[in-house]
């Protein structure tokens, strides 16, 4: 580069590293091959980190109907904030308990941005345990692992069939449709959803 009298020029120094450590080095240059100069620089390379809006989620179904339907799934949002200057690539381990879902399972949080992840809890058929706890793990590429503790509470239901549990259709003629009614009584204090399995 040629410097004219009384002028100032800029030099760009680019630094990049995949190693997590502190670098101290220098760049040497000369003027007209006679006067040497040395510029020192220091760089501290750290893991990419994310700030989490929450590290514990509690799920509990309300005792109410929504549009004539019982609530089977609850969704809560986890905000991932990237306060660094590099993209943060994340991925989740599969939850141990099938009651929990994570969406999306992987993604990228750009520097200075916030990314929303949906944590879902679903009441599943055949699971009668009242308290369902798990630890969800978020892994950062070239970074650490963040645990998210989740706890879901299910209220046991108590329903009975009113009257006899035997529906006797007796003698039915071929090709003739016959129907009988039976009643289910909810003896608990909470809304209960049911399904008929034939």
Describe the structure.
The chain has strands at 22-31, 35-44, 51-52, 56-60, 65-66, 69-70, 73-81, 88-92, 100-103, 106-109, 114-122, 131-140, 145-153, 159-162, 183-186. The chain is an all-beta fold and 198 residues long. It has a domain at 51-153: Sandwich (Immunoglobulin-like), CATH 2.60.40.10. A five-stranded mixed β-sheet has the order 4-13-12-8-10, with no helix packed on it. The radius of gyration is 32 Å and the shape is rod-shaped. The relative contact order is 0.17.
A few lines on this structure:
This protein has strands spanning 22-31, 35-44, 51-52, 56-60, 65-66, 69-70, 73-81, 88-92, 100-103, 106-109, 114-122, 131-140, 145-153, 159-162, 183-186. It has no helices and 15 strands.
Average pLDDT for all residues: 83
**Percent of residues in beta strands?**
35-45%
Counted by DSSP, the helix tally is 0
The helix fraction, in percent, is under 10%
Return the CATH architecture of the domain at 51-153: Sandwich
* CATH-derived topology of the domain at 51-153: Immunoglobulin-like
> Based on CA inertia axes, which overall geometry fits?
rod-shaped
Tell me the series of helices and strands, N- to C-terminal: EEEEEEEEEEEEEEE
Just give the CATH class of the domain at 51-153.
Mainly Beta
Measured between the Cα atoms of the first and last residue, the distance is 85 Å
Strand order of the largest sheet: 4-13-12-8-10
């Amino acid at each position: 580069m040629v410097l004219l009298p009384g002028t100032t020029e800029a030099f760009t120094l680019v630094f990049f590293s995949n190693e997590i450590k502190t670098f101290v080095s220098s760049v040497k240059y000369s003027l007209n091959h006679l006067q040497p100069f040395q510029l020192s620089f220091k760089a501290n390379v750290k893991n990419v980190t994310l700030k989490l809006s929450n590290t514990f989620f509690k799920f509990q179904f309300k005792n109410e109907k929504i549009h004539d339907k019982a609530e089977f799934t609850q969704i809560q949002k986890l905000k991932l904030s990237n306060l660094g200057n590099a993209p943060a690539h994340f991925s989740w381990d599969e939850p141990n308990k099938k009651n929990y879902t994570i969406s999306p399972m992987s993604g990228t949080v750009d520097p200075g941005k916030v990314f929303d992840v949906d944590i879902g809890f679903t009441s599943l058929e055949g699971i009668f345990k009242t308290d369902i706890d798990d630890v969800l793990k978020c892994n950062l590429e070239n970074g650490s692992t963040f645990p998210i503790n989740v706890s879901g509470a299910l209220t046991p239901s108590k329903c009975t069939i009113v009257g006899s549990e035997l529906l006797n259709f007796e003698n039915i003629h071929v090709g003739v449709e016959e129907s009988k009614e039976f009643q289910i009584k909810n003896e608990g204090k909470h809304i209960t959803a049911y399904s008929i399995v034939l």
